[in-house]
Design goal:
The protein is of the alpha+beta class. The chain is built from 2 helices and 2 strands, in the order αββα. Strands 1-2 form a two-stranded antiparallel sheet.
Length: 76
Protein backbone atom coordinates (compact mmCIF):
# COMPACT_ATOMS: atom_id res chain seq x y z
CA UNK A 1 0.00 0.00 0.00
CA UNK A 2 1.25 3.44 -0.83
CA UNK A 3 -0.53 6.72 -0.38
CA UNK A 4 2.03 9.42 -1.16
CA UNK A 5 4.75 9.44 -3.79
CA UNK A 6 5.19 5.65 -3.73
CA UNK A 7 5.51 5.48 0.07
CA UNK A 8 3.17 4.59 2.91
CA UNK A 9 2.80 7.57 5.22
CA UNK A 10 0.62 7.49 8.33
CA UNK A 11 -0.78 10.22 10.50
CA UNK A 12 -1.73 9.62 14.14
CA UNK A 13 -5.38 8.80 13.34
CA UNK A 14 -4.34 6.21 10.75
CA UNK A 15 -1.95 4.54 13.20
CA UNK A 16 -4.55 4.54 15.98
CA UNK A 17 -7.04 2.89 13.61
CA UNK A 18 -4.64 -0.06 13.24
CA UNK A 19 -4.92 -0.76 16.96
CA UNK A 20 -2.21 -0.31 19.51
CA UNK A 21 -0.72 -2.14 22.42
CA UNK A 22 1.43 -1.27 25.40
CA UNK A 23 3.91 -2.92 27.73
CA UNK A 24 6.13 -1.92 30.61
CA UNK A 25 9.71 -3.05 31.02
CA UNK A 26 12.89 -2.24 32.88
CA UNK A 27 15.58 -0.36 31.01
CA UNK A 28 19.14 0.53 31.95
CA UNK A 29 18.35 4.24 31.55
CA UNK A 30 15.54 4.60 34.10
CA UNK A 31 15.15 3.52 37.71
CA UNK A 32 11.50 2.45 37.37
CA UNK A 33 9.85 0.40 34.62
CA UNK A 34 8.93 2.40 31.50
CA UNK A 35 5.67 2.05 29.57
CA UNK A 36 5.87 1.86 25.79
CA UNK A 37 2.82 2.27 23.55
CA UNK A 38 2.28 1.94 19.84
CA UNK A 39 1.19 -0.12 16.88
CA UNK A 40 2.77 -3.59 16.77
CA UNK A 41 5.18 -3.77 13.85
CA UNK A 42 3.44 -6.90 12.54
CA UNK A 43 0.18 -4.91 12.16
CA UNK A 44 1.96 -2.08 10.38
CA UNK A 45 3.71 -4.47 8.01
CA UNK A 46 0.41 -6.21 7.28
CA UNK A 47 -1.30 -2.86 6.59
CA UNK A 48 1.24 -1.96 3.92
CA UNK A 49 1.31 -5.44 2.42
CA UNK A 50 4.99 -5.90 3.20
CA UNK A 51 6.75 -8.95 1.83
CA UNK A 52 10.27 -10.25 2.16
CA UNK A 53 12.35 -11.63 4.95
CA UNK A 54 14.33 -8.64 6.25
CA UNK A 55 13.58 -5.22 7.69
CA UNK A 56 16.12 -2.47 7.21
CA UNK A 57 15.88 0.09 9.99
CA UNK A 58 17.93 2.74 11.72
CA UNK A 59 17.60 4.96 14.76
CA UNK A 60 17.80 8.71 15.20
CA UNK A 61 21.35 8.18 16.45
CA UNK A 62 22.12 6.23 13.23
CA UNK A 63 22.10 2.89 15.09
CA UNK A 64 21.45 0.16 12.51
CA UNK A 65 20.52 -3.30 13.79
CA UNK A 66 21.55 -6.27 11.69
CA UNK A 67 18.96 -7.85 9.42
CA UNK A 68 17.53 -11.03 10.90
CA UNK A 69 16.02 -12.97 8.00
CA UNK A 70 13.14 -15.33 8.56
CA UNK A 71 12.29 -13.87 11.96
CA UNK A 72 8.76 -14.99 12.91
CA UNK A 73 6.16 -12.22 12.58
CA UNK A 74 5.02 -12.91 16.12
CA UNK A 75 8.33 -11.54 17.40
CA UNK A 76 8.08 -8.11 15.73
Amino acid sequence: MTNKDGTAQFDRAMLEALGGTSFSTATPWYKDPVKFEGVPLAKLLDAVGATGDCIVSFGLNDYRPKCRPKMPASSV
